Amino acid sequence: MSDEHQDPISHEDRTRIEAWLRSQRAPAKLGDARRLSGGTQNVVIAVDIDGREVVLRRPPVHPRPASNASLRREMTVLSALAGSAVPHPRLLWACPDSTVLGRDVFYFMELVDGFNPSAESNPVYDGDPAKRHAAGLAVADALGRLANVDVEAVGLAGWGKPGFLERQVPRWLAVADAYSATAGYRSADLPHLVEVSAWLRENRPPDTPPAILHGDYQLANVLFHRTEPEVLAVVDWEMATVGDPLLDLGWLLVCWPGGNEQAIEQLPESLGASGGLADRAELLAAYAAVSGRDLDSVDWYVALAGFKLGILLDGTWARHLAGKADGATARRLHEAAIGLLEAAFRITSGRWSLRDAAL
């Protein structure tokens, strides 16, 4: 059987999952399954269960040490967001017990019928500049709503620890150093780590009231409505935590397409590459209107986001060198990592600023 038509769920796993679903008094007959695009960190599968197509998420074939912990984190966050104003896929059934499949935890969530603007285009949006612009603002609006969720009310107060911002630079420098243990990996290929990390330490703003962070908030992790300028769901919550929500805003801004400071190339056929999705100043205004947050230190958060995401993405390059990740994807992410570090350096060296737009 070719890879294209190979069942993404093994016979043994089907038997185990169905038994577990029955134990949860849930529909238990797994039908046709297909791999979905996206999700470089975990496996994403659409599967029919008793005539309803839902999404199964589980760790990759070559799991990271923290893969199960990350998926348990997703389960917790999606459960906490139930009933909130934050657009997200509804959690259906969650199995945090890795012994059910012998190694992997897994969960099922609803299948959201939207499209990913970083990977797809849409003729309705292509022909309507006003709709594209409104959709861009909707991305900032959804992030503002996330910042407003009361972490204590949804049971996540225990996730927050003092010193969130203080921990970021040393933690991610340690991650970059760890990549060097991989044969062929050169940390020197990531530019400006020393300069950017020093600036971030010297200019760190005071802590702000904690909130839920998505952890990877960008166009790649939202699904748009197919005909209306709405965010139907924010997806891929594996990096979620409780801390300073302005890091999510910095992440969105450093990854945002368009303008002279675009750090990540968009796929040519995607909506993100077509332009007109609101500019960064408009995103800042939309986010501030919803969240009420002080954005005076926005440049620091954009620089931290470029620094952190650049190091994070280069982990796929290290995994490729170790024979555990696809080469084409790894090279694309390595180039993006370099672009993100360059963007962070432009801020720290005074050549790029969003602060005036935020005031």
TrEMBL record:
<dbReference type="InterPro" id="IPR002575">
    <property type="entry name" value="Aminoglycoside_PTrfase"/>
</dbReference>
<keyword id="KW-0418">Kinase</keyword>
<dbReference type="Pfam" id="PF01636">
    <property type="entry name" value="APH"/>
</dbReference>
<protein>
    <submittedName>
        <fullName>Predicted kinase, aminoglycoside phosphotransferase (APT) family</fullName>
    </submittedName>
</protein>
<dbReference type="GO" id="GO:0016301">
    <property type="term" value="F:kinase activity"/>
</dbReference>
<dbReference type="InterPro" id="IPR011009">
    <property type="entry name" value="Kinase-like_dom_sf"/>
</dbReference>
<dbReference type="InterPro" id="IPR051678">
    <property type="entry name" value="AGP_Transferase"/>
</dbReference>
<dbReference type="InterPro" id="IPR041726">
    <property type="entry name" value="ACAD10_11_N"/>
</dbReference>
<keyword id="KW-0808">Transferase</keyword>
<feature type="domain" description="Aminoglycoside phosphotransferase">
    <location>
        <begin position="33"/>
        <end position="274"/>
    </location>
</feature>
